[in-house]
Design goal:
With 203 residues, the chain is of the alpha/beta class. Helices cover 36% and strands 15% of the residues.
Length: 203
């Protein structure tokens, strides 16, 4: 799906944040965007219009009694193809886990750049678009380096939670097999055990 044909519903009690997100989505090519400050109103409009995306501010949703009793928002209140993206300040592990437990397809932490927003949207549409790298390799260059934050550990933990969600399945690629050439001499000193490398998804 091309972003130029996508539609979205935005839910946020903060008018400035809604307008800012609307502007960024317009720049990405979204052609139909509906705004509301009501969690229930956003769910109703998203289902009525069968929007491609529903962006919800976590703190706005948390004020609703509906959120406290909802066990699966997409299944209970949205069209089958609608992707739910939760916008979140202070994305601590409990808050992220709550967002995933209620059915969020992705959690987007604020503040975010236009490039970050675009990557997150494309990752939800096509999980295979994520770039897989290993520690020690070059992660970012140019403006993308601005997206790196000191909370990289929490962001990686957030990614693990998201990938464990039933809505976001990415099959890890088979690790490449490396054939080492035999050397003429073998060290008698036992090598130190290296820490296992973990795959990281660039977002």
């Amino acid at each position: 799906m091309q972003l130029e044909y996508c539609s979205a519903v935005l839910v946020d009690k903060n008018n400035f944040q809604r307008k800012l997100l609307r502007s960024l989505l317009r720049t990405s090519g979204f052609h139909r965007i509906f705004e509301t400050d009501s969690f229930e109103g956003g769910l109703t409009e998203s289902k009525r219009s069968s929007s491609d995306f529903l962006f919800i501010d976590y703190d706005t949703a948390r004020q609703s009694d509906l959120l406290r009793v909802a066990s699966n928002i997409p299944r209970q209140h949205l069209a089958r193809h609608t992707r739910l993206i939760m916008l979140m300040d202070n994305p601590t592990q409990p808050r992220v886990k709550t967002a995933i437990d209620i059915g969020s397809h992705w959690v987007l932490s604020r503040p975010f750049s236009p490039q970050t927003l675009d990557r997150r949207i494309r990752a939800v549409l096509d999980p295979g678009s994520l770039i897989k790298i290993t520690p020690g390799s070059e992660r970012r260059s140019g403006k993308d380096s601005e997206d790196a934050t000191p909370a990289s550990g929490l962001l990686n933990e957030m990614d693990d939670l998201l990938r464990s969600s039933q809505y976001f399945s990415v099959k890890p690629a088979e690790p490449a097999k490396i054939t080492r050439k035999p050397t003429s001499s073998v060290s008698k000193t036992a090598p130190k055990h290296a820490e296992p490398e973990e795959d990281i998804f660039l977002l």
